[in-house]
Amino acid sequence: MVKSRSAVLNWQRKILALALGAALGLVLLIPGCAYYNTFYNAKQFYKKAEEQRLKRRTDRPTQAELENYKKAVEKAGKVIQMYPKSRYVDDAVMLMGKAYYYQNQLGSAQRKFEELLAYFPDSEFAPEAQLWLARCLIAQNAFDQAEKVLKQLHARKKIPGKVRDESYLLLGDLYFNRQDYESALREYQKAAKRIGDKRLKAQSYLSLGECAALLDKHDLAADAYRRAVKYTDTPELRYKAVFNYG
Hints:
It contains eleven helices and no strands. By secondary structure, the protein is mainly α. The chain has a domain at 27-120: Up-down Bundle (Methane Monooxygenase Hydroxylase, Chain G, domain 1), CATH 1.20.58. Mean pLDDT is 85; it is low at 22-30.
């Protein structure tokens, strides 16, 4: 009977140890689940806003779209505030910057991209943050600063292809605003050839056509406008391209 009772006690201790281990594991798991779920919600709101942005036929964002970007910012902000050591912090900062940009809150967007580059210089999102920072600066007519950022981006040893391709379009916009149409033309040609996104490709060809027309390269302009019509899916861009192709 003594041995039997001892065996029962040992068995009970093992069960208790397993239960405590499981409980401890659950406690450790809860914070991870919490910050993952919070960031997941942020991504879902951003995804909805992006779907709405890409579906609309005008340049003006809808109220529903803006509301989803706002909710994405709020959720991503919670990840940063409540879980500052989580592995999703740089993701959250990047998402906030883009959501601010599409709400036309350019100053807030700029600060987020600068924060990511300052605090997470080795992040996989750093090249993309430089691209978006330059985009913000160009939108605010800070062309010299934008050019400096893009040069720093191009000086990187490794740049994701999509980021590099879109940087050509931004450089084209920068040179166009400076009335350096020859330089703008070269960048728009690179962008139009390499960008995969149809809307950005259409914009590249439209801008290329405008540059070529200003430089009296009328055959090149006509071809660019024709290609812009082919790729565009928005009435505004199509109208501009068709009108210029005329």
